[in-house]
Amino acid sequence: MDRVVIKFSSEDCGICHKMAFYDQKVVEELGLGFVDCKMQDTATYRKYRKILLTQYPDKAEMGWPTYIICDAAETEDFKIVGEVKGGHPKGEFRSRIQAALGETN
User: Fold this and answer.
1) Peptide bond before 89: cis, by omega within 30 degrees of 0?
2) Domain containing 11: what range?
3) In a domain, 105, yes or no
4) pLDDT block averages, 10 residues each, the chain of length 105
């Protein structure tokens, strides 16, 4: 199964930048793929925009960054299985990703 975590972020976001020091490492340690989708990267954003807009049709409730956990992200049949919003310390971020996956420590 190709389960990935898509990080929707902005180059102008300080919290997004801080999270970048460990978010991908944590996600990959949990056996998931990682996609960094900066809003300024129009090609990547266009590719994953449908997933973001499924979760946040007007983007009003999304956090910075927003991590959407998704199965089959590269297909039309993608399925959102969870999310984590905002910045968190490394251990808490790991716990929140695991909780979003329905896993326990």
Assistant:
1) no
2) 3-100
3) no
4) 91 95 98 96 95 93 95 94 96 97 69
